[in-house]
Write a structure and sequence with these properties.
46% helix
């Protein structure tokens, strides 16, 4: 398994600086974020811009293994659903242009006025339509266990099994499940059940604080048994990239506004490097 970085976690860096840093810490790949303003708007997703991105990534000896896309299928309005499908079509072409075959997708956040059952049913219906787009482009949609709505084993299994397509898999985020209030032992069960469906992995480590909230820390510094996670993934034959997503420094906008940008970036880089070094030691043991 190769090691890389989710670029969103280093979104405060210009794109060129991100690539140089990932190469410097011996990463081999990135998941490229498409979040608004990411990398200080130094990534151009126009047709010519995409070619420039690919050339820059190759020049550093790296690969784009996945694209961080956004979607919301909690909705039921046909026009709105069609808008989401067209958005995913754009993302699919972007992924192919960048040489990636995996698109991280989202289910959506809780929507006022709809019950959980209604939203889950909408999500299933939306992705059943969406996989037709995925199949057309040959891109795998990898649903992340993100937020509070679907960070539940039964819900995730229901969605994945109901959609029932090899083009609809999972982005397994190792920190989000406990962030959503689940226990560590519940998280390991979640990892085991979702591993057969996993096409993309975001690695986070954490400590659970006295108020039961989660604080993210560099990989190896927290409570998560990452060797156990690796064994679970190896047990189902996962051969994809392991992507570090270190988010433990604090809220970026608050820290930058406080005038601590340089310190923030230094700590972010240090935590990311330590994370990759730790995972490399586990893979080589």
């Amino acid at each position: 398994m190769d090691l890389g970085v989710v670029s969103l976690s280093l979104g405060c860096l210009d794109f060129d600086d991100l690539l140089e840093f990932v190469k410097a810490i011996d990463g081999s790949a990135i998941e490229l974020s498409t979040a608004d303003g990411v990398h200080n708007k130094t990534v151009d997703f126009s047709a010519e811009g995409r070619r420039v991105v690919v050339d820059k990534v190759k020049a550093q000896g790296l690969r784009i293994v996945s694209v961080g896309g956004y979607s919301d299928f909690t909705i039921s309005d046909p026009e709105a659903v069609q808008g989401q499908l067209e958005r995913l079509r754009w993302y699919c072409q972007l992924a192919l242009d960048l040489g990636a075959r995996i698109l991280r997708v989202m289910a959506g956040n809780p929507r006022p006025g709809l019950s959980e059952t209604e939203m889950i049913d909408n999500i299933i219906a939306g992705f059943k339509a969406a996989v037709e787009v995925a199949e057309e482009y040959g891109v795998i949609f990898a649903l992340e266990n993100h937020g509070t709505l679907i960070n539940d084993l039964d819900v995730m299994l229901k969605i994945v099994e109901s959609v029932g397509s090899p083009y609809f898999r999972v982005t397994l985020d190792t920190g989000n499940y406990c962030w959503a209030g689940k226990s560590l032992e519940e998280a390991y069960v979640f990892f085991e059940k979702m591993a057969p469906y996993t096409a993309n992995v975001h690695l986070k480590d954490f400590v659970v604080q006295l108020d039961r909230s989660v604080k993210f820390v560099p990989l190896g510094d927290g409570e998560l048994d990452l060797k156990r996670v690796l064994d679970i993934l190896r047990g189902v034959g996962y051969q994809g990239t392991l992507l570090c997503e270190y988010e433990g420094v604090g809220e970026p906008k608050e820290l930058i506004a406080a005038g601590t940008f340089d310190e923030y970036v230094a700590e972010l880089k240090a935590g990311t490097k330590r994370s990759l070094d730790y995972m490399r030691s586990l893979l080589n043991s």
